[in-house]
Amino acid sequence: MTSAQSDPVKQQVATHWGRRAAHFDEDFGHSIRTAAERTAWDRIFDLVLAGRRGALDVLDAGCGTGFLSLELASRGHRVTGVDFAPAMLAEARRKAAQHGAEIRFEEADAEQLPFASGSFDLVVSRHVLWTLPHPEMAIDEWIRVLRPGGRLAVIDGQFDPNFSVHQNENARTSNEYAAIGDQLPFLGGRPREEIEVLLHAHGLVNVGSDPVRDLVEAQAERMVEEGRERQTRRRYVAWGEITG
Ligand SMILES: C[S@@+](CC[C@H](N)C(=O)[O-])C[C@H]1O[C@@H](n2cnc3c(N)ncnc32)[C@H](O)[C@@H]1O
Question: Domains plus CATH for the chain?
Fold first, then answer.
């Protein structure tokens, strides 16, 4: 039993993503669909990896269907992905098998990891911070499992009330989140600059961030190509390191 299974807020979150697992990759922005998006993501992974050489031990916290896990495994890293929604993990495992990728996917709470301190060189997380009841505890936990000199990279966005999302793809307006939204302190997302301050406050050094404008633009172009209304919203990748 993971620590999340006795927490009613986390149960609601896990139920939501379990319900969406089969179609998650089809929802807008979850997969790479165009050459411009590929170019943008390659640059983002360069920022995440910061020139580190050799095969790294990587943790993907809240891995979902394994987007970051698969991308990092394809770059030669040893990846572990954790999530507490079994259906998301099943999808991640299916995709890894399909791609012949050896990735360890485990059911676990991203806020209370079942790993010894200093187990990883890199911890990554995409679109997870906003949905945690204790995001600051999670940051401490992600830092705890890093080795000296290890790096944390968080990819997330900020909610924009003018950015319209298809009802089926909108977690915030779902029944599950309606019941618990007030217990998720980062629900609307936080500004990139605030995340940098937070990473500093949690003891990281060499903190930096990038607004991933190329990805935002590439996705906006795709909206137009697909006959949707062109929209942009604020996104970021933010990183920091623990002292070596
Ligand atoms: C928006 S999805 C993002 C999935 C994936 N990181 C991606 O970028 O495609 C959020 C994921 O975080 C997972 N999650 C949320 N809170 C979690 C927690 N406390 N422990 C483990 N997984 C969590 C959910 O089950 C869901 O799969």
Answer: 3-241 (3.40.50.150)
